[in-house]
Amino acid sequence: MSFQVEITPLAESDMDEAYLWRAQNRSPEQAGRWYREILRVLDTLSEMPERFSLCDEPELKEEELRQMLFGLGGSTTHRIVFEVVGQTVRVLRVRHTGRTS
């Protein structure tokens, strides 16, 4: 069964912020690679999104949230927080692992 993946405006804003930080503090090339890779990874949520663990996100009120860990080069730098509603996977946040809110 295939799911539609929807990226919320807040998650898009998180991704844009992470891209800009990488472009300014690492390199524009690395920022571009990071952005392309996270889009590729988000697309994989269309198949079996329930395979990812449940998570607790106090700021978000949804009942059942899941998370996917993401990073380049073998190190996890971000948590992708999402919910599954019917046949849709809604990506709610893309949070740096060092941030609590």
TrEMBL record:
Matching InterPro entries: RelE/ParE_toxin, RelE/ParE_toxin_dom_sf, TA_system_RelE-like_toxin
Superkingdom in the source lineage: Bacteria
UniProt entry keywords in alphabetical sequence: Toxin-antitoxin system
Pfam families with a match to the protein in the record: ParE_toxin
Gene3D superfamilies linked: RelE-like
Residues spanning the membrane: none
Membership in a protein family: Belongs to the RelE toxin family.
Name of the molecule in the record: Type II toxin-antitoxin system RelE/ParE family toxin
